[in-house]
């Protein structure tokens, strides 16, 4: 099986997840249209075997996770998913793996209504890069840079379950979505908070998705906005049975952390997921938890 | 040096090549606007160390090549370059390498007027994935699927020099753009034929960029269009001092191969590069060179 045969079988597996655009997979480029009066939001994310997922993990779960991780960035910008391109490096021409991977891609794409319009396949160490693109009305993208002192800090869902699944090991024991235990499901099948991001347009003053850990990701908002934050430990929505430390510093949850001006904080719109107040934005830089200074110590590539 | 410090130094090196969009690097996603009455053309390409470039090649040349290779796909669609995202896997946090890489990215981006709006850095085997996006007026994208019997087959520039540079070895001897010999320059600094692609809107019936070899890439046009082609050996624009075989089957030239209805073939617009007639489209599938059947035998991943 060569590169082109592999591509054909993956595109066949994508089925309707690759259709519905001006021109989908199969040419030098895909062609799409951005809805009128909208800006385009674009992000790229790489998932490397044995860094971002176990190399022996089920192909379908790797594909699903790759799409959700990248679409989560669109959610954090308040964007409606539009289309994605997927670049896969595969050590050998394994048609079974490629088919499972494409099935996972397609399932995730259907879940968040994004179209897979093209991609690339190379022979190399197992690695997936997804470039995802979405739409926001002009000027309404949620950024990291507009949090103001007094804004309320929120987080969606609960935190720490995905990191607990990684800490527990055993992620390679699952061969399909149906097999997944609760924490492993949070790891492999995060739910990009698209509905929440879109509902927060014009309401949230800043937003970020939690990929590297709550404290580290919130610190990005603080630095970008030139502010600080004070958090209350008892308010952190720690996932059931998980250590607080994993909820604060474990990555991979893909929940949203966002800030809302105080006068709007009591009347949030429906987000499709619970949102919990965890603290307040303050003028002074840095972050505090129950009055004690804390810093983001989540995942950073190249650090020991 | 950690991931975020590496990103900061690369974005600093990009300078103006990262500015001039609604929101550039530094948030969950970049924000851009598609020009009115235009469609968006999108492509993704991966360059792996020791597959698509020597691992020891100069970082600046790797960066330059990565952008041009992906923008070449935009050229083949007739698109005006808009913006790109760059995902880099780097084995170690080598600031010198990253800075050189970013410089190469920036130089290529300025050359073709594309903006680098975001990216991703991971610790892993050296690999670059570029997602490039451009604009075409509604319905004017050049595809592979509309070549018709009787159309004239053209190719831009000359073919085979990049493949000759690979065959000769020695690609790692060059540390900067200024050092490059002719063939190595063709390999590391291909010129995406953006001007040609844009000028051919509404004129060419099909187009493709030559990444895997003339015959293989032309065969993609033939299959997509349901036609064949007959070529004349003496008309192939073989690069100076290069074997015909490399011109037919060597990849990496990133010239355009395109077809034009016969009645337009004598009055091509200015393309910014020479274009040579090399044959005709025919109804019967398959390709012939001077009457003898030939098939595309260019590069295919996973084939021995």
SSE order and pairing:
The structure is a homodimer of 304-residue chains.
Chain A: H1 3-14, E1 30-32, E2 38-48, H2 59-76, E3 80-90, H3 95-112, E4 115-123, E5 127-137, E6 152-156, H4 161-168, H5 182-188, H6 194-199, E7 206-209, H7 214-225, E8 228-231, H8 244-249, E9 256-260, E10 275-282, E11 286-289, E12 292-294
Parallel strand pairs in A: 3-4, 8-11
Antiparallel strand pairs in A: 2-5, 3-5, 6-9, 6-10, 7-9, 8-10, 11-12
Helix pairs in contact in A: 1-3, 2-3, 4-5
Describe this protein's structure:
Two copies of one chain form a homodimer. Chain A is α+β, with helices and mostly antiparallel strands and 304 residues long. The mean pLDDT of chain A is 94. In chain A, 59% of the residues are buried. The first copy, chain A, has helices at 3-14, 59-76, 95-112, 161-168, 182-188, 194-199, 214-225, 244-249; strands spanning 30-32, 38-48, 80-90, 115-123, 127-137, 152-156, 206-209, 228-231, 256-260, 275-282, 286-289, 292-294. Chains A and B meet through helix 1, strand 1, strand 2, helix 2 and strand 3 of A and helix 1, strand 1, strand 2, helix 2 and strand 3 of B.
């Amino acid at each position: 099986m060569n590169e082109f045969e592999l591509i054909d079988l993956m595109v066949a597996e994508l089925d309707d997840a690759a259709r519905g655009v001006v021109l989908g997979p199969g040419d030098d480029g895909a062609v799409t249209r951005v809805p009128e009066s909208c800006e385009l939001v674009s992000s790229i994310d790489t998932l490397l075997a044995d860094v971002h997922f176990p190399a022996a993990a089920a192909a379908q779960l790797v594909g699903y996770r790759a799409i959700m991780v990248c679409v989560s960035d669109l959610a954090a910008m308040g964007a409606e998913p539009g289309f994605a391109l997927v670049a896969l490096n595969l050590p050998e021409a394994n048609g079974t793996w490629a088919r499972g991977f494409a099935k996972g891609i397609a399932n995730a794409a259907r879940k968040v209504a994004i179209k897979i319009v093209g991609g690339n396949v190379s022979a190399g160490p197992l690695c997936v890069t997804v470039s995802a693109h979405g739409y926001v009305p002009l000027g309404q993208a949620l950024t990291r840079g507009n949090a103001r002192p007094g804004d309320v800090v929120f987080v969606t869902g609960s935190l720490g379950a995905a990191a607990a699944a990684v800490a527990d090991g055993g992620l390679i024991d699952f061969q399909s979505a149906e097999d997944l235990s609760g924490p492993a499901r949070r790891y492999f099948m995060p739910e990009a908070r698209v509905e929440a991001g879109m509902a927060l347009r014009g309401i949230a003053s800043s937003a970020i998705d939690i990929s590297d850990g709550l404290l580290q990701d919130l610190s990005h908002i603080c630095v970008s906005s030139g502010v600080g934050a004070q958090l209350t430990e008892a308010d952190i929505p720690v996932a059931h049975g998980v250590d607080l430390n994993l909820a604060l510093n474990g990555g991979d949850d893909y929940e949203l952390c966002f800030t809302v001006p105080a006068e709007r904080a009591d009347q949030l719109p429906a987000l499709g997921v619970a949102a919990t107040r965890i603290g307040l934005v303050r003028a002074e830089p840095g972050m505090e938890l129950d009055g004690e200074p804390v810093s983001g110590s989540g995942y950073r590539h190249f650090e020991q």
